[in-house]
Amino acid sequence: MAVWQIVAVVLGSEALFKFIEWFFDRKDRKEENPILKELAEIRKDIRLLDKATCKNFLVRCLADFEKGNKMSDVEVERFWEQYHHYIDELKENTYIKEWTERLKKEGKI
User: How far is CA 38 from the centre of its chain?
Assistant: First the structure.
């Protein structure tokens, strides 16, 4: 399965989980709802999968940039989409950001 397909599943699942949480929260406000607890765990697992998938993709691309491997315009565009998702939406600030900045300064990206 391609990275973009995994991302699509993750984002679609997130929307579905939000609806289910809203539905059960409205239906059962006073009691502790086990379904909401389970959904919270599933959401946490999906977020971890999303982070890991993004990080793997970004590391692979950065390694290719560093080696001077040619990438198509579409691949470079996809790199930037994933990079901004990782930094802006997932709020990750790891060595990925530093590595990207270094390669930009070196003119490899």
Answer: 21
35 confidence band (pLDDT: 50, 70, 90) = confident
DSSP 49-75: HHHHHHHHHHHHHHHHHHHT----HHH
**How many domains does the structure of the chain reveal?**
1
Q: Tell me: the pLDDT tens digits for 64-89?
A: 999 999 999 999 999 999 999 999 99
Closest C-alpha to 83, from 99, 70, 66, 68: 99
Burial class of residue 102 (count of CB atoms within 10 Å of its CB; 0-12, 13-18, 19+) = middle
The boundaries of the domain holding residue 16 are 3-105
